[in-house]
Design a protein that fits this description.
Distance between the termini: 18 Å
Order of helices and strands: HHHEEEHHH
Shape: globular
Strand order of the largest sheet: 1-2-3
Strand content: 5-15%
Structural class: alpha+beta
Radius of gyration: 15 Å
CATH architecture: Orthogonal Bundle
CATH topology: hpI Integrase, Chain A
Number of helices: 6
Length: 142
């Protein structure tokens, strides 16, 4: 795994993520950044997600993923209404949730949603960070 020379004490803000998504070359890149932002999961964990890892019930998106560090299965429960109230600027996570739902619905029913390597994800994150923010971004910034 490559070492990151970027300062990981620096955090990303929502407007940074929005700029990165706007510079994405494809829906799969926008999906990757959206899931990173919403869950804070590792890229390798996101790459193992399948269509049945996602469930949308009554305005709540549930993402079930297995952590690499402990091998535990966790379920991220994302309520659009709750996210709206938690954001001090009143800007909710709706665009990111919509991006995730749209990409998941368009994906095949069998196999991984993103059948790529962790290196691919790291390259996408680095490229979008440089293009959108003019700085090196690592997966640990999310």
């Amino acid at each position: 795994m490559p070492r990151y020379n970027s300062d990981i004490s620096e955090i990303l803000y929502e407007e940074d993520v929005t700029k990165m998504i706007a510079r994405a070359k494809s829906p799969k890149e926008a999906y990757l950044i959206s899931v990173l932002w919403i869950t804070g999961a590792r890229p390798s964990e996101i790459l193992e997600l399948r269509k049945d890892s996602f469930r949308l019930d009554e305005g709540t998106l549930k993402i079930r993923l297995t952590t690499k560090k402990l091998g535990e299965t966790n379920e991220f429960i994302i309520r659009e209404r709750t996210l709206d109230f938690e954001r001090p600027d009143g800007y909710g996570a709706n665009p990111y949730i919509e991006q995730i739902i749209r990409y998941v619905n368009a994906s095949a029913d069998v196999g991984f949603i993103l059948p790529y390597t962790t290196r691919w994800a790291e390259k996408v994150i680095n490229r979008l960070g440089m293009e959108a923010l003019n700085k090196l971004i690592s997966p640990y910034h999310f």
